[in-house]
């Protein structure tokens, strides 16, 4: 993962392309016909301000004319898995066809028989180390954990994890998910642990729990799920979340209030998310068509507009398919030079420690 990330980051900043007129290929006609016969697609855990998913959903609907039933946009990766399990025999609107989950959840979902294999037309351009050989799951985009800061309230912007423990940040810091279920929040806890010098995996998980226990005891931790609304209202003036969510949120607020996005000086943990189709999908062809759209040039570039590095970035860059104006909006490469890409085993080890011991060690019930 480290080599892959360095190549990706180098391309994102060092290679400049002129704006390009891009034509997008269509999915196989027989798949389109079969999906239209099913008539709809059910997604879960796709907030519209996450990776420009609002534009992704709108683009898919406009291109293929299918309805999209969007379940629980604020759900975490664990919630998505539970939704599949709870609806194995349910073909109604509460059964998700597709999931977008943290890296560690893909292999475990396959192991539990919850996913359906499918290889998209652009399969060969997805790096080997972020996809299941049989097509049960495949990486879609990545980002790094960052601090999203309301500078109307926070006058001294924190630059590193250690800063967040200072008294000046009392009642200020929130996670963007529940660390017992949300992949984003789990990795945020692990990133805090990594900033103390702990190695990736269970050690980072344990150190991260201690860090948040200290933050909670200091009165700095706010046990609610931080969002742009709570940031703007001042309830959570500092939110720890993915850089792409923070940058998108900054743009959405349009300076009211002003927001600064900080990639911390240490503990820069990157996370890859993956897509999968439910083994019990009520609309399997619509699910496959959704995947074709997400992994097409059109879908990948839409994610990039939402500040997410799409998994096919290298392929798009090599073929001069990324407009220069998109590249110019990405954060500078220097902020990402220390990025750590935990392996699946390391993520799984950290997740086990954090989800099991959060209540006991930290004692803050995030809602």
From TrEMBL:
Molecular-function GO terms, alphabetical: thiamine binding; thiamine pyrophosphate binding
Coiled coil: none
Signal peptide: 1-25
Keywords: Signal
Entry's Gene Ontology BP terms: thiamine transport
One GO term describing the cellular component: outer membrane-bounded periplasmic space
Protein's UniProt keywords contain Acetylation: no
Keyword Signal: yes
Protein origin, superkingdom: Bacteria
Name listed for the protein in its UniProt record: Putative spermidine/putrescine transport system substrate-binding protein
